[in-house]
Write a structure and sequence with these properties.
With 177 residues, the protein is mainly alpha-helical. It has two domains: 1-115; 119-177. 65% of the residues lie in helices and 4% in strands. It has seven helices and two strands, in the order H-H-E-E-H-H-H-H-H. The protein has a two-stranded antiparallel sheet. Strand 1 (58-61) and strand 2 (64-66) form a beta hairpin. Helix 1 packs antiparallel against helix 4 (85-112). The longest helix is centred in the C-terminal third of the chain and has 36 residues, at 123-158. The N and C termini lie far apart (53 Å). InterPro entries: PSI_PsaA/B (IPR001280), PSI_PsaA/B_sf (IPR036408). Keywords: Membrane, Transmembrane, Transmembrane helix. This is Photosystem I P700 chlorophyll a apoprotein A1. It comes from Noccaea caerulescens (Alpine penny-cress).
Length: 177
């Protein structure tokens, strides 16, 4: 039962991440900040004019009024190579899909194929699954993303190229000519 609860926890984490990416895509000035991060402050929230609360909105630059954020999400997204709201939306949808998969995995391992105690006591199978799958492949894929996607995109951004002119990440791989 505890094993399937872990999938439920992962589902909640993916749902939370999806919300962060969705709010960044829908309510933020990420694209404006990305084009001029020194003069435009990051803002992902606008207070609606209800009972005078719009006084909390400040000018963050680029013609955008909102609450300036200091969470570091914009910097993380830039370092990851995200250059548009569309990519933020796609990441939010991907996180929702993974949340649904984790919810299904929790249900499946609780109701249909609950692991037996002997499986947890078999150290060899447990270590191979967790270490090779999660740590090994996860680290390799993230390192590959950093080298082949994030680094070229950040070199373009540091050189002053407009984010809208930077090719999408898959175009770096497919259009080598």
């Amino acid at each position: 039962k505890v094993f399937s609860a872990h999938f439920g926890q992962l589902s909640i984490i993916f749902l939370w991440l999806s919300g962060m990416y969705f709010h960044g895509a829908r309510f933020s000035n990420y694209e404006a900040w990305l084009s001029d991060p020194t003069h435009i402050g990051p803002s992902a929230q606008v207070v609606w004019p209800i009972v005078g609360q719009e006084i909390l909105n400040g000018d963050v630059g680029g013609g955008f009024r909102g609450i300036q954020i200091t969470s570091g999400f914009f910097q993380i997204w830039r370092a990851s190579g995200i250059t548009s709201e569309l990519q933020l939306y796609c990441t939010a949808i991907g996180a929702l899909v993974f949340a649904a998969l984790m919810l299904f995995a929790g249900w499946f391992h609780y109701h249909k194929a609950a692991p037996k105690l002997a499986w947890f006591q078999d150290v060899e199978s447990m270590l191979n699954h967790h270490l090779a799958g999660l740590l090994g492949l996860g680290s390799l894929s993230w390192a590959g993303h950093q080298v082949h996607v994030s680094l070229p995109i950040n070199q373009f951004l540091n050189a002053g190229v407009d984010p809208k002119e930077i090719p999408l990440p898959h175009e770096f791989i497919l259009n080598r000519g």
